[in-house]
């Protein structure tokens, strides 16, 4: 079984477990922050090549809000959580009790905080699972078209990367459902370390 096989079931099983752990931690942290019950669906996880990931995420012209966190240490790369416009407005409604414009500084701050919890929990799960030290950089937030957001992520860490880890999940806060995508791009060297840890 080749470790370059994007459909390798061993790698996918580990990534699903990491996504479960990371989103579980994120829900606990988010629930504590807002003082409300937060539910979450079991993440759907994909390991995709750069050329195919846009097809999974949706229309490149769709407006989205995204939070990016770079990380470095024994594993290097960058991760981003992406919310479509309807999910972003649902997030405002669930947490603030009212809708907000995506350009509102308070709204952007809220998106950044929630996104940082989700991405940070995923990166933390990655570090814990593989016993590596990983340091996360301060988060950045942007509102733009999906295609432009992905281009930024690829420009940051994807010049030489050929694999993206994509996790889709839905957060439920009271009666509001918020869909989010976590996109992680480990550097080729880091992905090699991951597969070596798995004995592949």
Please count the helical segments.
Answer: 6
Poorly predicted parts: none
CATH topology tier name: Chemotaxis protein chec
Share of residues in helices? 40-55%
Shape-level CATH architecture: 3-Layer(aba) Sandwich
- Overall pLDDT confidence: 84
Q: Class, according to the CATH hierarchy? A: Alpha Beta
Topology order in helix (H) and strand (E) letters: HEEHEEHHEEHEEH
Please give the domain count: 1
Global Rg:
16 Å
- Backbone structural class: alpha+beta
Any idea what the shape is? globular
Q: How many angstroms separate the termini?
A: 8 Å
CATH superfamily: CheC-like
Strand-residue proportion: 25-35%
Number of beta-strand segments: 8
Q: Can you summarize the main beta sheet? A: 8 strands, antiparallel
3D architecture notes:
By secondary structure, the protein is an alpha+beta fold. It has one domain (9-197): Chemotaxis protein chec. It is 47% helix and 28% strand. Strands 1, 2, 3, 4, 5, 6, 7 and 8 form an 8-stranded antiparallel β-sheet that branches. A hairpin with a 2-residue loop joins strand 7 (164-173) and strand 8 (176-186). It is globular. The N and C termini lie close together (8 Å). The mean pLDDT is 84.
Set out the fold topology.
Layout: H1 9-34, E1 38-40, E2 44-48, H2 50-57, E3 63-73, E4 77-84, H3 85-96, H4 105-130, E5 134-136, E6 140-145, H5 146-157, E7 164-173, E8 176-186, H6 188-197
Antiparallel strand pairs: 1-7, 2-7, 3-4, 3-5, 3-6, 4-8, 7-8
């Amino acid at each position: 079984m080749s470790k370059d096989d994007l459909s390798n079931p061993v790698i996918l099983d580990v990534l699903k477990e990491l996504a479960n752990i990371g989103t579980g931690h994120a829900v606990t942290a988010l629930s504590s922050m807002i003082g409300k019950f937060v539910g979450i669906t079991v993440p759907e996880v994909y390991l995709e090549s750069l050329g195919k990931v846009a097809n999974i995420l949706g229309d490149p012209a769709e407006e989205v809000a995204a939070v990016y966190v770079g990380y470095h240490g024994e594993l290097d790369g960058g991760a981003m959580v992406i919310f479509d416009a309807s999910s972003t407005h649902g997030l405002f409604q669930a947490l603030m009790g009212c809708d907000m414009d995506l350009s509102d500084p308070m709204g952007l701050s809220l998106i950044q905080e929630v996104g940082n919890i989700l991405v940070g929990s995923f990166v933390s799960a990655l570090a814990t699972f593989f016993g590596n030290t990983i340091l996360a950089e301060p988060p950045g937030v942007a509102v733009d078209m999906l295609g432009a957001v992905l281009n930024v992520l690829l420009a940051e860490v994807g010049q030489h990367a050929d694999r993206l880890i994509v996790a889709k999940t839905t957060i439920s806060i009271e009666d509001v459902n918020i869909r989010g995508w976590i996109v992680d791009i480990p550097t080729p060297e880091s992905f090699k370390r991951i597969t070596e840890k798995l004995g592949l």
